[in-house]
Specification:
This protein is 33% helix and 23% strand. The protein is α+β, with helices and mostly antiparallel strands. It has a six-stranded mixed beta sheet with strand order 3-4-2-1-14-13. Strand 3 and strand 4 form a beta hairpin. The radius of gyration is 25 Å and the shape is elongated. The termini are far apart. Keywords: Endonuclease, Hydrolase, Membrane, Nuclease, Transmembrane, Transmembrane helix. It comes from Streptomyces rectiviolaceus. Pfam families: Exo_endo_phos (PF03372).
Length: 340
């Protein structure tokens, strides 16, 4: 069908002809501008520096304020700078800057592009969930009810207080027949638990445990852990030394596990990119990375910026992984379905 374009007096026309003329004028303006290679050198330099940080983040030393771990915790967010630099390059009419911005853009896509797509699949034998319920949670009953509504067969809770434990036990008793609380962490299960014991992560008190879940598809060793919190301080940087030592101890315990199928649930106060968790991440897979939809950020609940609540597996195949709706905690619950 033929198309007609109406030209009003004084407006220069409309439709594809006018749009094409705009692009031609823009191209002609750039073509005749010899400064496009000299302008925007600072922007280009920032883009190259950003690319170097993305490429060599593992070489950034932790000796001063654990700078390397801090950058790795929020590494995906470096991609936010790419469109900013791109806009600056266009505004400055700098070909040098635009070409330089391609470097961090390509590196970000190659590192994190796979996390954007939905990799979840159907099937699975066991659904697990974990939630840092927050010691100051004003509605533990509602939080327990929300987590149980996920349909998880096994639920791990962290940051349990002695006063709140009876409330969680009462709220979850109807759904989960078996449970164990060790220190400030606990596990609720629809299937029997055996071999339950605390795990020493070098803190002086109990914030980790292991147990064997007798699922219909076989035994699974389940670990629950809440590694020490980290802080960002102006005078000390990223204070994570205690967390790092606990991660090493947890990694040793998992490495010594005799059951072939292992699931780790908990608040690790670190992301999969953080080298300080290598003792754990080097031997286990993230369910979110393998079978999740998006980044699965879990903290803070009001505006999630990092996935520090983890579900990791060894000898088990992740099928799907997701975050659950916000509860009365400052963390989001996370869940996964795995095939045994």
């Amino acid at each position: 069908m033929a198309q007609a374009y109406v030209t009003e007096t004084g407006n220069g026309g409309s439709g594809p002809d006018r749009q094409g003329s705009r692009f031609r004028r823009l191209a002609d303006g750039w073509r005749g501008d010899r400064g496009i290679w000299r302008r925007g050198l600072v922007t280009a330099g920032v883009a190259v520096l950003l690319a170097l940080v993305m490429l060599f983040h593992a070489q950034i030393p932790n000796g001063v304020g654990n700078l390397g771990s801090l950058i790795e915790t929020f590494l995906p967010w470096l991609g936010v700078l790419v469109p900013v630099l791109l806009v600056i390059g266009f505004v400055r009419k700098s070909a040098t800057a635009l070409i330089a911005v391609l470097l961090p853009a390509v590196l970000w896509v190659s590192s994190f592009g796979g996390l954007i797509s939905d990799k979840s699949g159907a099937g699975g034998d066991l659904t697990v969930a974990t939630h840092n319920v927050n010691a100051e949670n004003a509605d533990p009953t509602g939080t327990a009810r929300d987590v149980a509504a996920s349909g998880a067969d096994v639920v791990a809770l962290e940051e349990l207080t002695a006063d709140a434990v009876p409330t969680y036990e009462k709220a979850l008793a109807g759904t989960y027949k078996y449970h164990s609380v060790q220190g400030t962490v606990g596990l609720w299960s629809k299937y029997p638990l055996t071999g339950t014991k605390p795990v020493d992560i070098k803190l002086g008190w109990t914030r980790a445990m292991r147990t064997t879940v007798a699922s219909p598809k076989g035994e699974v060793a389940v670990y629950v852990a809440h590694l020490p919190s980290v802080r960002v301080k102006l005078d000390a940087g990223f204070t994570a030394n205690q967390r790092d030592a606990s991660a090493d101890a947890l990694g040793e315990a998992i490495a010594d596990e005799q059951v072939s199928k292992v699931v780790l649930l908990g608040d690790l106060n670190g992301t999969m990119n953080d080298r300080a968790l290598n003792a754990v991440t080097s031997q286990m897979r993230s369910t979110q990375g393998a079978a999740g939809d998006g980044f699965g950020f879990s903290w803070p609940a009001s505006f999630p910026m990092a996935r520090i609540d983890q579900i990791m597996v060894k000898g088990v195949e992740p099928m799907s992984s997701w975050t659950l709706p916000e509860t009365g905690s400052d963390h989001l619950p996370v869940a996964a379905r795995v095939e045994l």
